[in-house]
Model the fold of this input.
Amino acid sequence: MNLTVTPHGDCRIIRIEGRLDGITSPQLEQEILRLCEEGCHRLAFEMDALDYVSSAGLRVLLLAVKKTRAAGGRVALYGVGPAIREVLEISGFLSLFPVLETKEEALNSLA
Amino acid sequence: MRTSAILLRPDLNDLDRLQRFIRECCDRHGLDETLHNRVQLACEEWFVNVVKHGFGGSGSGETASAGGAAGEPDISVLLEPAPPDGLTVRLSDNGPPFNPDEHPLPDLTLPAEQRPIGGLGVYLILKLANAHRYARTNGRNELTLHMKPDGQHKTEGTRTGRNRNELDRNTARRLPDHPH
Done:
């Protein structure tokens, strides 16, 4: 898994490439905790290059939602492929954050 | 029909081996990518569960043998193509009894603030399979998943009944047509 964090105003775009599973998800968790400590509570997850997510990855996404909301922030996802969408749907995660098509839509939803 | 099997250690570092094993098997049999993804996910969820809860390991081999399992840990995955395009996954371990059908279902209607962190793994396994069967046999947990590339995952609230029916129908097809 590769993580790239890009600032965009007071939002942060987190691009996740590869697999978000039991092995790699602690890396994303650390990154999210770091961003929250720095006071970044508007997070857009760019997921067009994410191939796979397991419950370990879902756990970290839920953590991101809880952490940001507690600080008055928000989370949005965009570029989600069908395999990832299926897992989000099964897990009832589509109601937890907006799942959008483009970066612009995601950033608008965080504004 | 060619069957592939792998033995795993109760160590999360073996997840990588398990993933490669599934990838190779699915490629060899030309299985659909959607099916491959579902098999990867179901097997990962099962394996992580067995390592963490069955054998008390948090991921490193040193702590893994301290769990409640009798004797040497013995964890295996067996993949068996189910023509024309499906796969039967047999998951087996000698950890303490764990019946996934008795595992509490997550409440997916809760708002984010009230959702517990975690607890989705077993649910995902059962939802990703078109049918499943659990048995405790000779001190082992034996979980069989029937997985197909077509169709959607199972719908809400029909887990036990529908799985049972599907499994029975599948079994019935292999039996003689006229029982009398």
About this structure: The domain at 2-106 of chain A is CATH 3.30.750.24 (Transcription Regulator spoIIAA). The longest strand of chain A covers residues 11-20. Chain A touches chain B at residues 21-23, 52, 54-56, 58-59, 62-63, 65-66, 69, 82-83, 86-87, 90-92, 96 (CB under 8 Å).
